[in-house]
Write a structure and sequence with these properties.
Elements: E1 6-10, H1 14-26, E2 30-34, H2 37-47, E3 51-54, H3 63-72, E4 80-85, H4 90-99, E5 103-106, H5 111-118, E6 121-123, E7 130-132
Parallel strand pairs: 1-2, 1-3, 3-4, 4-5
Antiparallel strand pairs: 6-7
Helix pairs in contact: 2-3
Length: about 130
């Protein structure tokens, strides 16, 4: 499994975001946490994550809006974007895909599920975008 990926966790539930960040850090990844979509967009521009794990139901800017705006930036076209949400109906999954998410996990997702998605990535030497396998 690759380690050393830059992962951005976006969730308005700070406890959930911080817990996930700790687990990912223990797995060898560099992790940043933001609690709103607008703050996460700013942080993404500085941090240049290989992967983003994002809640959908956040106040202000929803996860869908965040994904759409993130995907407009060419630096994030190949970033792994994962919806991590309590919303699991087929329509929710369809809306997430339409917004630009690559994967959709239902809370509480297991650490193994999250790590399996991250394992698809290999950081490119000297590049800001990962290569997805």
């Amino acid at each position: 499994m690759p380690s050393g990926l830059r992962v951005l966790v976006v969730d308005d539930n700070d406890d959930a975001a911080t817990s996930l960040a700790m687990l990912l850090t223990l797995s060898g990844h560099a992790v940043e946490v933001e609690n709103s979509g607008s703050a996460a967009l700013c942080q993404a521009g500085r941090f240049l994550p290989h992967a983003v794990l994002c809640d959908l139901g956040m106040p202000g800017m929803s996860g869908h809006e965040f994904a759409q705006q993130l995907r407009q930036d060419p630096r994030f076209v190949r970033t792994l974007l994962v919806a991590l949400t309590g919303w699991g109906a087929e329509d929710d999954k369809r809306r997430a895909r339409a917004a630009g998410f690559d994967a959709h996990l239902i809370k509480p997702a297991s650490v193994d599920e999250v790590l399996a998605l991250l394992a698809r990535l290999q950081p490119s030497a000297g590049a800001d975008s990962p290569v997805q396998g």
